[in-house]
Specification:
Layout lengths: L1 H5 L17 E12 L2 E12 L5 E8 L4 H9 L3 E5 L2 E13 L5 E7 L4 E3 L7 E7 L7 E6 L4 E11 L3 E7 L3 H11 L4 E9 L6 H19 L6 E7 L2 E6 L23 H12 L2 H18 L4 H24 L7 H4 L2 H10 L12 H8 L7 H13 L3 H9 L2 H22 L5 E4 L4 E4 L8
Antiparallel strand pairs: 1-2, 1-4, 2-3, 3-6, 4-5, 5-6, 7-14, 8-12, 8-13, 9-10, 10-11, 11-12, 13-14, 15-16
Length: about 450
């Protein structure tokens, strides 16, 4: 069929998971533990495991046996793991046992950088996996096998001046996500590919590329996701695979701003995001504000802790955008504004008013209960102050605020963060409004007549 002729092939990784949370084998057979130029031979396996905490683990039986080696195993703090004559990573032995026949068995963990292969070789493309990313419908791809032909809207394309990034949803995404809903934990839901416009990519430059991509995808997802198990290819041969772990949140649904399944506007704001990322100060800002956004969105510290977190993000947005970039207020006056006025000034850049949304009746009741509270900005700051400050009067006030009112205050602050970031990134289309629970145009959208 001509349909299939015109579609690109779906990206699939050599890294496979049979089920949610299943172990990923890295190496089976002999490897070495190196300590002070002494090689200790081990017959066993190296593998990635999600629990008790996601990391690379190793186990096996020592095939090098003498008293000196036994003493080293018992006393050394760390070892260099050598696989196929190349350094894999640093390992810590967590326990040892001696079997009835005298074999010394070890188990350990490699908690830092763990790379199989020669990472000094530049590569032409990198494939990677993304666990726990929400469902998007993107561009069409195909998969053709002897038994079947598949096409689906699985692809997200992200391009900037340096890199082309393709991210393809698994063709069994629905089944995998259902398994995650039932079991929790982690499952690979997307596979991706990076190519450089300057032809080759070094291992070292990937750290910043993935840091940028991970931060951006986390903002889309509303919980932390990242690219894992990156494999570098040269002339279609796998040269190295990076098994180092970077944080992915255990699967759980939380709301986020993208429309249901839609990738509209995502490629455009990726360009703006990655352009901002070039500057160190902007990179630090984006890293921090997305961190605070995710922690607020996940109710870290429960509702009261998340309210504190959300207003940390709003303060950062005010300082970076309103003061440092737009320079709306200069000098000491910017520091002398109270927290409510800082939020009002931030909202004024987004065409948002300061009133409590009509959906939040409990928060409005809190506003109505105190004639010194002027609007939503005052309300969220008053609630935050009642949580943070420990005077008897503040504790009494906090007890009088209903849990639902506090929850609404948190959702309002999280919404402000989302809208502010979308404004900074130049997004101008529909988004999911967590307040109204509807898909709406951003407040600054101007309809073309």
């Amino acid at each position: 069929m001509k349909l299939y002729d015109t579609l690109p092939n779906i990206i699939e990784s050599e890294i496979k998971m049979a089920n949610a949370n299943s172990m990923i084998d890295i190496h089976k057979g002999e490897y070495l533990l190196l300590h002070n130029n002494i090689n200790i031979k081990v017959e066993g396996r190296i593998y990635f495991c999600w629990f008790p905490s996601p990391s690379v683990y190793f186990s096996g039986i020592l095939t090098s046996k003498n008293l000196e080696i036994t003493e080293i195993i018992d006393s050394a703090e760390s070892f260099t793991i050598i696989v196929n004559e190349l350094e894999f990573g640093e390992g810590l032995i967590t326990n040892t046992t001696i079997s009835n026949n005298g074999d010394l068995k070890i188990k350990g963990i490699s908690p830092h950088q763990s790379v199989l292969g020669d990472k000094t070789i530049s590569v032409e493309k990198i494939t990677f996996c993304i666990p726990n990313l929400r469902n998007f419908f993107g561009d069409s791809v195909k998969k053709i096998s002897q038994k079947s032909k598949y096409s689906g809207r699985n692809r997200i394309k992200l391009e900037n001046e340096k890199y082309n990034i393709l991210i393809d949803k698994s063709i069994t995404y629905g089944t995998l996500r259902d398994e995650l809903k039932e079991n929790g934990g982690y499952h690979i839901l997307y596979n991706g590919e990076i190519t450089s416009k300057k032809k080759t990519i070094t291992f070292e430059e990937l750290n910043d590329v993935f840091h940028c991509l991970d931060t951006f995808m986390t903002f889309l997802n509303g919980t932390r996701v990242c690219a894992l198990f990156a494999t570098g290819y040269f002339e279609n041969k796998a040269i190295w695979t990076n098994y180092s772990y970077h944080h992915v949140d255990i699967f759980k649904y939380y709301p986020s701003w993208p429309q249901d399944f839609s990738i509209i506007g995502i490629e455009d704001i990726w360009v703006n995001f990655s352009n901002l990322w070039k500057d160190k100060e902007n990179k630090d800002f984006l890293t921090s504000v997305v961190h605070w956004y995710v922690e607020a969105n996940k109710n870290s510290g429960f509702v009261e802790g998340a309210i504190i977190i959300s207003q940390t993000a709003l303060e950062l947005l005010y300082n970076w955008w309103v003061i440092e970039n737009k320079k709306i207020i200069l000098g000491k006056d910017s520091e002398n504004l109270n927290a409510s006025n800082k939020i009002r000034l931030l909202l004024s850049q987004l065409n948002l008013d300061y009133s409590v949304p009509k959906e939040f009746k409990n928060l409005q009741e809190f506003v109505d209960s105190d004639n010194q509270i002027l609007d939503a900005c005052d309300a969220v700051v008053q609630i935050r102050n009642a949580i943070v400050h420990s005077q008897e009067e503040k504790r009494k006030k906090l007890r009088s605020i209903s849990l639902i009112a506090k929850y609404e205050a948190l959702q309002l602050c999280t919404w402000y963060i989302e809208i502010a970031l979308l404004g900074i990134l130049g997004y101008s289309d529909k988004y999911y409004n967590r307040i109204s629970k509807l898909e709406e145009f951003v407040p600054w959208f101007k309809k073309i007549e």
